[in-house]
Amino acid sequence: MTKRSPELAILIAGAVIVVGLALGKGGEQSKPVSIFSTYDSGANGYRALYEVLRGAGLPVTRFERALGVLDPSTKTLVFTGYESDPSAKPLDERDAEFLKHFAEAGGRIVAIDAEFAGKDDVAPGVGTSLRTAGTEAITLARNPYTAGVTRVRGPIGWTFPFKEPHGVPLLANSKGMVAVLYRVGRGEVIAITAPALFSNKHLRDADNLRFIYNAVAGHGPAVFDEYIHGYSDHLTTWAVLPAPVRAAVWIVIGILALALIGANVPFAPPYLPEPPDERDSSDYITAIAELMRRSRSRPSDAVVLRDAILDFQHRKEHA
């Protein structure tokens, strides 16, 4: 049985991994993830909201670059939760500092997310949300943000606790505050803990649309941050590729590297095959003697042995 080379085993294993990754990608494509993006037309997407706001004449646009290059004419910035986005670009400390300066300079931030982490969150001055459960919230304050709004309806999984009040409660249920307004410098922040309320699926429920319209309107040009959801107007070819495809490329590169190493770097002593079965003259004579013994031809043993020796010498001379 021939021995398989280690390079072949490596290539086979790599091929299995790549095929498995491709099958996994196929499963993802059959069940796409819907995210809180204005480009998404799925159940969680904000495509309907964006189109309604534009249709109503509001100056809204999509922003697809790092926050540091945001147009100074922007007065309202809307960003939504991206924790479940497969291509998300999370905000970092520099983004948090930018948001703080943006609000202090008079901008309005509409932060629509479920999990707020207090002082560790990118939203400036925001409180800490806690996991709860509910499907409805009512208005608590009477101001321009709640004009025409009685209640909102949809999945509400997180709220700000009442025992840690922060700012002016706009929406709340029995578990806590769902939307809060507070000041930061000369600007303001509206923090909302239920992003599903304004999704394609629930935008028409109760007064959901009226509330988010009030939150975005009336404060100059507004932008929806799509960069955090993985969209960019200056992506490279590599960045355009889906994450599973990039992973597959790195796997193939790793397979080739291992194959090259295995072909050029010895990891064990060289394999020496068994020597071929070559018989010499002594084996020939021994075999003839054994035949003679078995034949029990005693009178002619000497003659047979002589003839065998002569035959061997003759063969040897002509070899």
Description:
This protein has 319 residues and is of the alpha/beta class. It has three domains: 6-26 and 241-264; 32-235, Class I glutamine amidotransferase (GATase) domain (Rossmann fold); 281-317. It has helices spanning 6-30, 47-55, 93-104, 208-216, 237-240, 243-264, 281-295, 301-317; strands at 60-63, 76-80, 108-112, 130-139, 151-159, 168-172, 177-184, 187-192, 222-225. A nine-stranded mixed β-sheet has the order 1-9-2-3-8-7-6-4-5, with helices on both faces. The longest helix is centred in the first third of the chain and has 25 residues, at 6-30. It starts with 5 loop residues before the first helix and ends with a helix. 29% of the residues are buried. The model has no long low-confidence stretch (mean pLDDT 84).
Could you name the CATH homologous superfamily of the largest domain? Class I glutamine amidotransferase (GATase) domain
Dominant shape = rod-shaped
Our count of helices gives 8
Mean pLDDT: 84
If you compute it from the alpha carbons, what radius of gyration comes out, rounded to the nearest whole angstrom?
39 Å
By CATH, the topology of the largest domain is Rossmann fold
The amount of beta strand, in percent, is 15-25%
The count of β-strands is 9
Q: How do the strands line up in the largest sheet?
A: 1-9-2-3-8-7-6-4-5
Q: Multimeric state of these chains?
A: single chain
Give the CATH architecture of the largest domain. Answer: 3-Layer(aba) Sandwich
Unreliable stretches, pLDDT < 50, 5 or more residues? none
Classify the helix fraction into a percent range: 25-40%
Query: Order of SSEs, N→C?
Result: HHEEHEEEEEEHEHHHH
SS-derived structural category:
alpha/beta
- Biggest β-sheet, characterized? 9 strands, mixed
Number of domains: 3
CATH class of the largest domain: Alpha Beta
**First-to-last CA distance:** 34 Å
